[in-house]
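Hello,

Our lab assistant flagged a job as stuck in the queue for most of the afternoon. It eventually completed. Since we weren't sure the result was trustworthy after the delay, we are filing this so someone can double-check. Below is the sequence as submitted and the structure that was eventually returned. Let us know if re-running is recommended.
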Amino acid sequence: MKITDSGAKKRAGNIKLVIMDVDGVMTDGRIVIDDNGVESKFFHVRDGHGIKLLIRAGVRVAIITGRESHVVSRRARELGIDHVSQGVIEKAKRTREIIEELGLLPKEVAFIGDDLIDIPAMRIVGLAAAVADSVPEVKKFAHIITENGGGKGAVREVCEYILKAKRLWEEITEKYLK
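-- returned structure --
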């Protein structure tokens, strides 16, 4: 994890909601559409487990994505993500709406992005994270940059960073380590 803001750990300790993009963050950015129009995306199982750990620790998770896909709805259901916004071009606006709906403050929210469309949302939250293979402009607005690329464990890195900053990592993982 590359820390680009000296206050990143403190920022992460305040997080009550993590919002993430899908294509290029939860996936490696590839979209496969077969001859029958069936869409496939590639998700990393450890990213999914990281999301489940966050939820188990009481941190809420949301998705805001510019595309619409049945695959995203299904993956969100599997992981227990109850705030899923698809086909959203104005991600900052939707981020503000979710913050208000949940009664949170912007400093209590993290956003994980990878492309230009994510920058406006990243600019209004307490913790902005960029995946390793983000476009350079996104990295300029990130407080943290993952070592792994989108769909390759980047989300898990952010989840662990937040849980450790909140001092919940040991508690949430102890059942696995006994």
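-- support follow-up --
The delay was a queue issue, not a problem with the job. The result is valid. Helices lie at 8-13, 45-56, 70-79, 91-101, 119-122, 136-140, 154-165, 169-177. The chain has a mean pLDDT of 95.
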